[in-house]
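Re: weekly structure request thread

Next one in the queue (594 aa):
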Amino acid sequence: MRSLAVYLKNYKKESILAPFFKFLEVIFDLLVPVVIARIIDIGIAGNDRSFILQNFFLLILMAAAGLTVSITAQYFAAKASVGFAAQLRQAVFDHVQKFSYAELDQIGTPTLITRLTNDINQVQNGLNMGLRLLLRSPFIVLGSMIMAFTINLRCALIFAAAIPFLFLVVFVIMYLSIPLFRKVQGRLDRVTALTRENLTGIRVIRAFCREKEAVKEFDDCNQELTRLNEFVGKLSALLNPVTYVLINIATVILISTAGIQVNMGSMQQGQAVALYNYMAQMIVELIKLASLIITLNKAAACADRVADVLAVAPSMHYKEKTAAADKTGCAVSFEHVTFSYPDTGAPSLSDICFSVRQGQSVGIIGSTGSGKSTLVNLIARFYDATSGSVLIDGQNVQNFSRSDLRRKIGVVPQKAALFKGTIRDNLKWGNDTASDEEIWQALSMAQAKEVVEQKEGQLDHMIEQNGKNLSGGQRQRLTIARALVKQPEILILDDSASALDFATDAALRKSLSILNGKTTSFLVSQRASSIRQCDLILVLDDGCLAGKGTHQELVNTCETYREIFFSQFPEERISYEHSQTQISASEKDKEVTL
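Done, posted below.
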């Protein structure tokens, strides 16, 4: 919790004024029993009606003043807590934006969502309650004891004996419950993750008739969270009955002692009533304190979880300014690059070496899990290579500033991601100064012009979150257009045409071919037809570079590529085997002649 206090620096005044006004309210509350005692001992005992009325109006004035300072304290507490939460949420979001894919993979999306929403809300509530009540309750309890000493020493000793026991109970319950609240938030992460997984994969669940299993898994996870919450709730609920027992025992002893004092004439009846009122005030404040402690326990556990996110240092650092370097003929080079994901045994890429000249088109093909997406992610520096170097224009990607590197590269990810807004707004992510003419040109190249023209409002057509009102192929074409609007030096298409039919895919490749010479393009695909015409084809097999070259060179020299190609074009296998037979026969004829 202390590490988050820095976000209160802009609200120091409010953080001081809120407890201060609560302290004033406490003073008014503590004076009320004194006034009542004077009314009983002087006004009622002496049948002095004017004195009773004067003190009655004094009580009303004190109540009005107490209400005013209470509202003022609430205002400052709310302003400080809401402002603190806003700055903290912004700081966490900005910090997460600096994470590489490695940190995002490690922490997980559901956990980050929980910590940015529920956890910070709990911290905000805890701060709000703390500024208003954390000092009020101890002030009332200790103030009641002090005021009791001004009335009667023997009765005040009862307060002095009861208070340490009360604080001991509070401390023990806090000590036991804070770690449990942290576990509750961890279980909440699991429920959030499972909910997100089931909702995003609901079509797959239904396709395989796994609804019952999904419901059962969620119920089990939810029951586990419920059981832990109930246990923590029962532990926290002990605070009220235990403090009630202690305070009522103290009240019985107080009334007995005060009654004896009144009968002996050493104490007035009004003073005994005042002492009882102070004890009653303690009861009310302890009830509030019990609720406050539960809230503060949750807030402390959530604050630790938020602080844990802020404590994660980004593993990837960028230069403030790109180092000056002479451009070479190579747009992208991999020099003995090896990459392993965190906490994995074998590397995902092993000793990858290749060079690509500016303006070339590069196709990347291989079996599922061979490392195709990992390879292009290293070009965009979503991850850093474990060993070896990734070079762009002859310079290590780690020597580029973030803005310069992102400006050079346009990425179309495997999963098409669109945001709520108009088509124009989504496409301007690539270039926020792009004109409508440039946008239409990019749409035409991405084979999405007809799609947009058919929409109501065309470029002003509203896209729902994640492009829910578009088909898979439409989403892919719009994400390709978004990257083309950027006019990048390096264009990466990570299996981004998988939802397109063969005709549209062919038209897309034809339109992209005019970029050659200006843009270096990387096409990741499972289809041999999509990368067949590329200037260079990289064949990956289990993280290793099994072959590189043109289509014809790989058909002749790379067994892995040959198997992929012939599995998709079986008719080509016959002609290839026939040509190989003829070549073998001619070689034998030469040997016989010799």
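The chain has two domains: 2-311, 330-582. The mean pLDDT is 80.
Next request, please.
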